[in-house]
Design a protein that fits this description.
Number of domains: 5
Keywords: Membrane, Transmembrane, Transmembrane helix
Strand content: 25-35%
Amino acid sequence: MIFLIALAGLAGFILIALADLAAGGGRAKVRQYLAAGIVAYIVLLITIYFVLPAFIIQNILWLNAIGIFFAAFGLFANDQTAKKKRNIGVSLAGVLVALLVIGGIVCVIANFAVYQSTYDHVVQSTEEVAKPLDEDKTPIAIAPSSVRNKMNKKMSVVPDTQLYHLGSLQTQTVGGTNEYIAAVEFDGFFKWLKGGETKGYFVIDATDLGAQPEFVEDELSYVPSAYFHKDLKRIIYSRYPSYIQEGEARLEVDEEGKAWYVQTVYQPKLFTQKANGDDIQVVVVNPYNGESAIYDADEAPDFIENTISPEMASKLNTYYGEYSGGFWNRHFGKAGVKIPNDNGTEHGVTAVFAEDGSIQYFTDFKSPKENIDSALGYSMVDGRTGEVTFYGGEKNNGIMDSSGAVEVVEKEYPEKKWEGKMPVLYNIDGNPTWVISVLDSNGIFKQYAYVRAADSDYVVFGEDAKSTLEAYRLQLATDTSTAESTGDAPVHKVSGEVNRLYISGDNAGSKTIQFLLTDQDVIYSINATDAPYAIFLKEGDQVSFEAAMHDGAKSATIEQISIEGLN
């Protein structure tokens, strides 16, 4: 295929040569053009082979610019042809150069003009209420940098380990288990010559902090780090030259344990390199024999959960957030503009497991106005379809963005230089909350941090997700300004005898009553504003009420209560 693309890059050269030869010049001129043409063709072949430019209008123009440059050697060669006989070739060359310049200008203008269209072609939806966090479905437990640290420490188990380095991480669900997968890749050209095939890939449970990576031996030949005819990017380019490859190819494993490489691709809009958000494809390559197939992103084989690369997810977020009003509005009027933050783990996005087991890419958005660190909401990009779902609503107004939340966490341990990574926003019991992994300078996991997004004074740290979540919920329940139950939790009918009682108040005079029931360890909280008679509650009273809480929760907020003998 690259031979035909190189030939297309010689179109301008051939036209000039034919026009000039038609004006005369004899065999000497033919030899000059033939020599220049051969050199130009070789240069184009080498350029295309190593650069791999997609076969689109923009790239055809600059490839022809190379060909026209070499045509000048034949056009202006010193020979016996009269100057006037070369005017046709010179004139045609001038026309072609002008066309190239005009084409370049058109491409530049088109890149500005299609931003509104790129926004319109992003598959999108808006939700007014953020999804609540279930303690049984917490975010990915291990930040990617911590995972890579663990895998790199296990590289010694790889046969001929000196030939390889760790490749890109992929998030996937295999057999009902949430996993990180990373292939080992060649560590350079000479290592590839020596090894010939990579030795396999690492797998680790993505939600178990104590998990250790397991190395799976599996010899793969057609990989991203190979060269020449086994280079994965070159294989895809040779078969689908009109597609742009977005991001790196990543390894996924099917239910039988067979490895596949997955590469996100798209055909750009005319005269540009901009993607159509509703027309994204994926190339699936068999790394054992190099065979490949191309699918629409949402129609790929079921085991592939990331047909959308992190790079593409980030690009879709940019289209969606910044260009709803086109290019000029983005940079001048800025009406409706939302800027995606870049605090994600990969290319500004963070891969998380959704409740249905699918992969979603999380990103929060901020205002284009400087010195404002409040979030405008957040998005989830579906890992298979590329659909951008934006979560805004009243509860997300005025909350800090991910940069502010990370800063709050890092201020807690300035002497240790721990870093906040992988911030993800959830709605916990009606309160937008940042869930952040705290890592040391080596990428080793240290703690979880739960930060109330509307009040940076509420920060809870813990060594595992479940206990940190419960501690955070307990802190929320003791604060009269946040005491409310989550409507998404199951409602339980509760009755019993009050065993312990505590009444607290705030500066505004509001009272919160907290109590324990005999033989129960759940802390129940109720505000006197909702239930005025609750301030007369005492130990030994028989009570009954309904509480919305998750199974195993250590605290719950209630709104009404029945006290035997009182009401």
